[in-house]
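anyone seen this seq b4? input:
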Amino acid sequence: MTKTDWKAEAKALKKKVRKLKDNLTAAAGPVVEAVGEAVSDAVAAAKKALKPVSPLAPASFPALPAIRGVEFAAVEAGVRYQNRKDVMLVRLAPGTAMAGVFTRSTTRSACVRDCQSKLALKAGTAGAAIIVNSGNSNAFTGKIGDQAVAAVTGAVAEALAIPAGRVFSSSTGVIGEPLPFDKITAKVPDLVAALREDAIEMAAHAMMTTDTFPKGAAATVQGDGGVIHIAGIAKGSGMIAPDMATMLVYLFTDAKIAPATLQKLLSRNVDATFNSITVDSDTSTSDTLLMAATGQSDAGEMKGPVLKAFEAALKGVMHDLALQVVRDGEGATKLVEVRVTGAASDADAAKAAFAIANSPLVKTAIAGQDPNWGRIVAAIGKSGAAAERDLLSIRFGDILVAEKGWRNPEYTEQDGADYMLRPELLIHVDLGLGRAKRSVWTCDLTSRYVEINADYRS
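predicted toks r here
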């Protein structure tokens, strides 16, 4: 065989091999695809089993109204999580009024400090924006953290052609790790391109860390000349206690309202809502509540009864979101209202309520559906609130458990045990000393809470 014949035969053989390979690939394609789908389904099922949705979760995410002048987007940036959206952007129309409430933690994050400084600036007429990432809190990261905030907000400002002083940022997740801000800035063009009015649910998903469901709430108010809309989203599940708990909350309205008035309404209603919940008595470094009012409703500027109705509606949205955070408490199976009445002062009412709501002994008893009211007595006694044995009473819902210094003679353990089977409970303590009162919402403490927090960085 000549050299030329050998080359021709080799070429023909290679052609046959390629054809055979193509045929095998075509035949195996459906099998490979089916196997891939099966593996994906198995992985999704395993993830769902490892992170079940809270039994206290709403049936679905609510239908929230579009707010004129507000657009949302969310993308996958891989800040910490893979194969899920973890960065969201909100674009706000020119002239939007901004207000905020933040954690009072002395180790608060770079984002929190940056937001606080920007809200202190004189409000302008330019547009505004909010950018949020999950997976990394950018807290206790020194000057590097400040530089990361500047890089992220600067990139958004440039992309949206607005002042950097009108770009607010939040980060939530692991503390003490430098924020890989380049992963976020690289996605800013994609975020801007994806902005739309109806993507608020997607934005709520992108903020989640140990949350098991996205949180949203809304309300409407009839104003002079048109309807005023309010919509809000939140994240939070663990490290939840007063001083804004461990949460991120963003509220939006199309109301015409001055920044100072908006701030006043927000600050006035935070104590009865977001500062009245506790999951585990721990407070975060990143707690942020921002509210934006675009002024684009057809209704005129609010005053008198309309302003009063707006404040009531705003408080309702804040309360709804706050309770959703507790419903998603890490490992929670019970939503509990601790209601203290008859206290000598507001401070004493709060002390007693939070002592009960934060007590590991009370919370584990509730998890075990054990009506151990003696633990409530102990919590009151250690709270520091004024209390007298023979004046206070304890109720589970409408069931009188104890009064006049001892157990109610008509109370039975079976009554208490039956009540504890409910998913939502009321513990009502009347101290019999005055007229002050306070309600606090909490959840039970289960072994799942330990599992989640033991594996948080794994």
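The chain has a mean pLDDT of 89. The chain has three domains: 1-50, 70-327, 335-454. kinda curious what u guys think
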